Amino acid sequence: MKQNFRKMATAARVLAADMVEQAKSGHPGAPLGMADIATVLYAKFLKFNPENPHWANRDRIVFSNGHSSALVYALLHLSGYPQMTTEALKSFRQLGSLTPGHPEITTDGVDFATGPLGQGIAGAVGMAVAERVLNAEFGDKLMKHKTYCFVGDGCLMEGISEEAISLAGVLNLKNLIVLWDDNTITIDGHTNIATKTNIKKRFEANGWQVLKCNGHHYKSIEKALKKAQRAKQPTLIDCKTTIGYGAGEWANTPKVHGTPLGEMMATFKKNMKWTLAPFEIPQEIYNMWHACGDKGKRACKDWFELAHKNTNFMNRLKNPVPSNLSNVFNELKEKFLVEKPEMATRKSGQIVLQKILENMPSLIGGSADLGASNLTKTNASKPISASNYAGNYINFGIREHAMGAICNGIAAHGGFVPYSSTFFVFSDYMRPAMRMAALMNLKELFIFTHDSIGVGEDGPTHQPVEHLASLHAMPNMRVFRPAGAVEAVESYETALQLDGPSCIVLSRQNLPTVRRGAGENLLQQGAYVVRKPLKKRQLTLVASGSEVALALQVFSMLVEQGADVALVSVPCWELFMAQSEDKREKILGNAPRLFIEAGSSLSWYPLKRPQDMILGLDTFGESAPAKDNFAHFGFTKENIFQIAEKLMKNK
Ligand SMILES: Cc1ncc(C[n+]2csc(CCOP(=O)(O)OP(=O)(O)O)c2C)c(N)n1
Ligand SMILES: [Mg+2]
User: Fold this and answer.
1) Residue of the nearest CA to atom 13 in ligand 1?
2) 1 pLDDT band (50/70/90 cuts)?
3) What is the pTM for the complete model shown?
């Protein structure tokens, strides 16, 4: 099949322009500018199979400038992804379509959801890491592919890109090829109004190879991509392009970034020498585009023949969580129930993590330079490095934002459950990536330690207050805050059983083991009665994490006074709120409720009735020893005892 790149790129351009026009909304600028590069990439290099979009050894492609989505869908349509019909293109940006405003991974052929600039390039770094680690474990025949990533000027301005490319340099991810749509235009004008960074020097300083091409000249693009294939380092290709290429006076102006061509459409189509009706593509051009997938189809077929013989590998891809983990969890629970350790949950968490790591090669992750504090580096951790990818621990450096997005990329790649870790208060630094994990429903663990004012002397900058509530507000994110060692085991167990992302929030300070009997995993319903009332409840104490221990002291004081009290632990607010109201009410009971949490009171209002009370923390903490801090904010057994007595009297 003789491919004519000019015709192919023109078809991609007009389709993208037609889509934006039909929707009366979207971004024509980047698609028109990037179409030539994408055409050469798809025709000559990208290894993909439209008939099997999830084939594990395909090349990955991330459009970090997610506003180029019209081009993404045009490419998927032209190259023959069955789902991406002309109808789908016509539904661009409409409710329930496969062609949402920015790419989402629920569309076949979209490897990573993008839109918030910079997330994509960090995700691509994660994919390249995943590929290298699997390659080290299973060899070239089963796992060897490239990760391509388009970025705009915006992605490179975002700080996360610096975090990501510097780690990519350290890990020397030679299979990562980033294509920069270098059009010197962003929404507000020429890039020189906001940056004078020498991008070439910046990437080179991080150990990358930097190549350059004319992004509208096929030979030039091909030459650069060819060189990148043989790279010994990660590669940036600086593709000089014109935003809105072909769109008359709008080309090379910010206007074309996000304005449907409208009155400029006629000029554009004339410049493209295109006379067909909107969405009409000649068969000859379809044939050229369909041929792009041929190399991938052959490679995919060969790969399956081999891969099927390796059940270990195939099972790993199907489900990275091994089936025998329940034994690990049960043994640990038994051990903790017998030993009843007085231990920080970050420490019991480390014991759990180590046991899982020993049994789960697909669990990889690391910390943003707090391995020794988060206790997420274990005796079973082995570093992943440029000289040896066969490890399970990533030294992320002090780069929380990229750490989150890189883990998203590892999870989206497949074959792994990634984990990241830092102080809970710095979850803010990775929140945009966590939101994308939730949106993509990626199974991963965000492990946070130093979960409250219990941090103590480091002071309010280091003391999370609003973080639990703010993460509860994030859709599809689960937050586990175990009260002790047994709940720590169950937090990991539940997080690994369920789909999607989970946070595991752990204490710095020691906590008693509050759980008594073993039995089933009690975290699956989010909350449970950890100390039962005798006959008729007069009060229910409700707490999570370290405050459960405090509540337990109050419980004992009240019981000594002859009161009949229940203590409820809520290790996972989201799972509890997902229960039926009946079930929740049964656990919480009719008696007055006293909610105790050393954090924003916001989360407890949905469960608070007029006769109940919340002891929360709605200001910043103080720099003081933890004990003094808790006392200052009323988190003492004496104060809570008094509040409890008042609540019971008021009834
Ligand atoms: C984190 C984030 N901030 C802001 C935006 C809004 N936004 C979308 S595109 C864009 C400009 C991007 O410029 P560039 O990457 O050069 O794209 P081009 O205009 O060249 O297509 C901005 C500010 C965003 N999507 N994400
Ligand atoms: Mg630009």
Assistant:
1) 186
2) confident
3) 0.98
